[in-house]
Specification:
Small Protein B, Chain: A; seven-stranded antiparallel sheet; 32% helix
């Protein structure tokens, strides 16, 4: 995935959902890619686009990493063997990366926020951002910077015409 979270997805990547609010509420410093341990009905539901990342977060528990509050809606065709929409899901990463993340979350006060969920070569992946929360003033500054950049871009495009 791209660092900025914008632009087109690379070849072989099918984006299911992005958490647009995450980059507004948090200052993302690093991003990681993790696999997801899912059931069959969850994969089918993801392929149908039935997903919400709005309140989701990840947290280390022991030597493992888990995704919480990620809502994957029920798959209607799998009525008998369905899944719980809000269950905690295990994230698959290398142990060294999990340890690095765990230290940052526990000692430095960072938060792990899912930025996007996508299929990469048939495997479900989630892009996690190691982030610090923004204060209200910081959000205002980010909006002001974005607006001034837009105005400068508009002025430059008018000048080129």
């Amino acid at each position: 995935m791209s660092k900025s979270g914008k632009g087109r997805a690379p070849e072989g990547v099918q984006v299911v959902a992005t958490n647009r609010r995450a980059r507004f509420d948090f200052e993302v410093e690093e991003s990681y890619e993790a696999g997801l341990a899912l059931t069959g009905s969850e994969v089918k539901s993801l392929r149908a686009g039935n997903l919400s990342l709005s309140d989701a977060y990840a947290q280390p528990r022991g030597d493992e990493l888990f995704l919480f509050n990620c809502r994957i809606g029920e798959y209607s065709a799998a009525a008998q063997f369905g899944h719980a929409p809000l269950r905690e899901r295990k994230l698959l990463m290398k142990r060294a990366e999990i340890e690095k993340i765990r230290v940052n979350v526990e000692q430095r006060g960072y938060t792990l926020v899912p930025l996007s969920l996508y299929f990469k070569q048939g495997w479900a992946k989630v892009e996690l951002g190691l982030a610090k929360g923004r204060k209200h003033e910081d959000r205002r500054n980010a909006i002001a910077e974005r607006e001034t950049k837009r105005e400068m871009d508009r002025a430059m495009s008018r000048k080129r015409r």
